[in-house]
Amino acid sequence: MSSADIYRELILDYYRNPRNFGKLEKFDIDSRDTNPLCGDEIEMQIRVGDGQKIEEIKFTGKGCAISQASASLLTELAKGKKLGWVREVAKEDVFKMLGDPDLGPSRVKCALLGMKVLKTGVYGYLGAHYDDPETSDPMA
Amino acid sequence: MLKTEPLDVERVRADFPILKREVHGKKLVYLDNAATTQKPQSVIDALVDYYSRYNSNVHRSVHTLGEEATAAYEASREKTAKFVGAPAKGLVFLRGTTEATNLVRFAWGEGNVKKGDVLVTTLMEHHSNIVPWQLLAKKKEATLKFVGLNEDGTLDMGQYENLLKESPKLVAVTHSSNVLGTINDVAEICSKAKRVGATTVVDGAQSVPHMPVNVESIGCDFYAFSGHKMLGPTGIGALVGKKQLLESMEPFHGGGEMIKEVFPDRSTWNDVPYKFEAGTVNIADAIGLGAAVDYLSMIGMDRVREHELRLVEYALETLAKVKGFHQYGPTDPNRKGGVVSFNLADVHPHDLATILDDEGIAIRSGHHCAQLLMRWLDVAATSRASFHVYNSYDDVDALKAGLEKAGVIFKI
After folding, report:
1. B220 is catalytic
2. What are B377-387's pLDDT values in tens digits?
3. Does any domain span residue A99?
4. pLDDT tens track for B321-365
5. Do B351 and A12 touch (CB under 8 A)?
6. What's the CATH code, domain B9-30+300-409?
7. Number of domains, chain A
8. Is residue A63 within 8 Å of residue A35, measured between CB atoms?
9. Residue of chain A minimizing CA distance to B402
10. What is the DSSP string of chain A?
């Protein structure tokens, strides 16, 4: 793993200038989670529009560059998609979005926190339960 | 001022086999000693020797191996107790500091804390010296109160004196902060607590490994520490308690070894400290801890302290030159253990730790099991470099270079 490879321009840019950062006045979904290892925090709010579409999505949070950039990139990807799309999103999509950095076992959870928050919120809205098989941390 | 002969770090390093390994093709620079220390060959040998030559249960085996194991286990108790200025019978071997504070919570707390009582701890504690008291307070409907900190990361003694006016039942305080490094005047804290009749618990996890400690002169009722932070194995630590107090307490765990006689309706307890060592004890690691105590005694704790003080002094001076470096806690190395907590501009500690790991440098990043302190510092996390006998000025220089590299990557 090379740290210069992980912390490329894209991640630093989204860490310092996160897109879709903030809170929504009206929202249908509000989901929050933390990563006890890093103390990363992510909260996402979603307004659901016609045709079960993600009309608006914003996030707030604090934590490492990987967790914050990953959450921000994910909100950009999710905006305008149907809620059903959230079920299809997998960790590989998140890694690809980040430029496939070699994160190593202890940092993978940072990258996947945003996805966990998104899935937990949307699954709950759809009356399902997300039991987070992918983001469970063997090192926690 | 140098009171002792300086350490020959190269000679010390040769005693620690792990320091020969490389990480990501770089020489290992191990600066995570407040989390756990590395082990000298003599400690590793003591474990191997026990398992390969005289492995046996202690105390009740009437055969040669059993007698040898008992003798080694009890010799280790004596050495470890002497190391902190306590009588051997006042030292209970446990898994570590956390088990020790929990023993006090149950074995002392159950019988001594009542509804409406006040318990006092501080904002700079490790969770293991907060959560047991929180649980005790909840169970007994008592109140847990916290001593705050001054700007410089020392305890607010004025506030402490005010809390003492509420006649607390318990005062639980750390000897040295695992984040700020602050060395507390625990003798003064305990003597003041005693005047209002409070029982005192001192968390020595970050002091016994790094400086001379004498529980007698501290005057505390209980003193807890962990073996793995003082060059010993994991899974072994100790609670030192005043004999009279230990004798008056109910047992912690019930089982073998801790009893004298068992009847269908009742049992009588074994003598202290065996009353608190139920089940087969951690014989091998207790013997390993004895070997660690021998190693530290050979160097001398005055020299260990002197060495770390110089490293902290050098680190504070050297790292301050790195752009964006911000240190937490006392700035006077004399008031600090071998710990430097910091942040680098807006780089999150976990990102920093990943970058440093790439250079073979191991530091700690996160909340350090001190979330109340993190909130007081108004940070989510910090990075922490912590030293022991095998660290050198070169390690500090390597850390500086690593921080500078992180600065370049993060465009600080």
Report:
1. no
2. 999 899 999 99
3. yes
4. 999 999 999 999 999 999 999 999 999 999 999 999 999 999 999
5. no
6. 3.90.1150.10
7. 1
8. yes
9. A3
10. --HHHHS-HHHHHHHHS-TTBS--SS-SEEEEEEETTTTEEEEEEEEEEGGGEEEEEEEEEES-HHHHHHHHHHHHHHTT-BHHHHHH--HHHHHHHTT-----TTTHHHHHHHHHHHHHHHHHHTT-----SSS--TT-
Q: Test A38 with B381 for CB contact under 8 angstroms.
A: yes
CATH of the domain at A48: 3.90.1010.10
CA-based nearest residue in chain A for residue B374: A39
Banded model confidence at residue A4, pLDDT cuts 50, 70, 90: confident
The fold of B44-297 is: Aspartate Aminotransferase; domain 2 (3.40.640)
**Most A CBs within 10 Å, among B354, B364, B373, to test the A interface:** B354
Does any domain span residue A132? no
Is B265 buried (19+), middle (13-18) or exposed (0-12) by CB count in 10 A? exposed
* CB-based contact A39 B346, cutoff 8 Å: no
| More reliable by pLDDT, B193 or A138 | B193
Q: Which of A3, A39, A110 is closest, CB to CB, to B355?
A: A3
B383 contacts in A (CB within 8 Å)?
Answer: none
